[in-house]
Amino acid sequence: MIDQIQGIILKKTPAYSVLETGGVGLKVLSTINTLEVMPARGEKALLLTYLHVREDVLDLYGFHTAKERETFLQLIGISGIGPKLALTILSGIIPDKLRDRVIAGDVAALTAVPGVGAKTAKRIIVELKEKFTKTYEDSLGFEERDETISGLYRDALNALTALGYKQQQSNQALEQVEKSGELEGELEAVIKKALKHLMV
User: Fold this and answer.
1) How many domains does the chain have?
2) What pTM does this model have?
């Protein structure tokens, strides 16, 4: 499986982008949210990917965060939801809000997304409520265990958004800093590390 791709953006549309990597232009289908935070044409971008293979289809999907890709994979694991509908759902509701709506059993919020009927909405809630609840509780546990790290994260996020970066972009950069084990020390140092990821 192609786990991620990095390349120069040749084209951006409301539904997909074309990235050049290794002399090949790859069409990557993405959510509106991912396309909005991607750099402009001619700049370099990194996307986490999922390759959908069928007899007559070979589609590549790209996501700007691991959370968005994980939620996408959870959605397509539900009977009756294919990749295109999953992409539509995540274009209408970002992962965190989708989690909240599912945990709350909010059928109306889900059916507001084009292509999602009442039966599909109920199926999503039944299939994902337990998984989302566990994920939510685990994330709360992390914040309680390490208040210093979560405080640094929040302060750095506020600083980056104050500099004009979108919250989703800033979150992605800080997640990369956290994964590398460098979310520590002075706030200024953390911001500089995050800026390096934002400027890639």
Assistant:
1) 3
2) 0.68
